[in-house]
Prior knowledge:
The protein is an alpha+beta fold. Helix content is 33%, strand content 29%. The relative contact order is 0.18.
Amino acid sequence: MKLVTTLAILSALLLAGFLLLRPRLGEIGRPTPPDTSGRARRHIPDGTATETSPEAAPPGTGASGAESEATARAGITHSDEIERAILELVNENRRQEGRGNLKNLDWDDLLTRTARNHSDDMLARRFFDHVNPDGLAPADRIALAHRQLVGLTGENIWMQSGYALSEARKTAELIVREWMESPGHRENILRPDYTHLGVGVSIKGDEVRATQNFALVRALIDQPMPLEVKSGEVLHLATTPGAEKYDFWLSSSGLKVGEGADIADGTVRVNPGVYKLRFYFPTPGGYTIFTGPQVEVK
């Protein structure tokens, strides 16, 4: 009975503390738990790799949908000053926290484009999440936009109300400080694997949404992948540095389709559907598999 009474008192104190702090927390920027989908998978001969990123088809692009989206995005601007300051502050934290063992992240224009688009979308459609209302997660959006990237991806997002145009640098410092104070976001910022960063800061009135898209660029496909391909078509899949094999990955079911094929044999031999390409890089005893662009097979 004494133990039950003690637990009840502790629960009441914790609830009171939460209610006391909640108004204060509502006044500062809000980072969410980061998305670190796109991690490399180890593949040993006769084994099978797995992936957990959700799969979804791109949203419709009909005329009425395009018009309503354009209306919703009217008045949204971007701050190159905040975006570049965030990159500078991220690299500063990597140098300080990594004690010289973490490399600076390089700016990537395509990752910036995907980050800006997600920040715009959060403002326009009034949501705040890594997964947009169409069901697309960060790995999906990057795989659609970046037609040559083979590697790993991750994302941090943040929001704030009450933005003043004169406070660009202070806003950048606030965003990075709050990400660094959050263990998951901090992990993304300090992750040794990452090589590139894109930042998108979108502003409408006094509302701010910020997105960081991280990537480990393991390789680049020599020729950009088309969004749509046909069964029987031959794809040019050579990468730099070179992968040895590839396969088609159906994320919605967590399965690869068919066996991994030699990189020189780019013939599409899968049924119509939406897939991610995956690339096999040799390692002692097997391969490491990295995800590439999304393609729709017609």
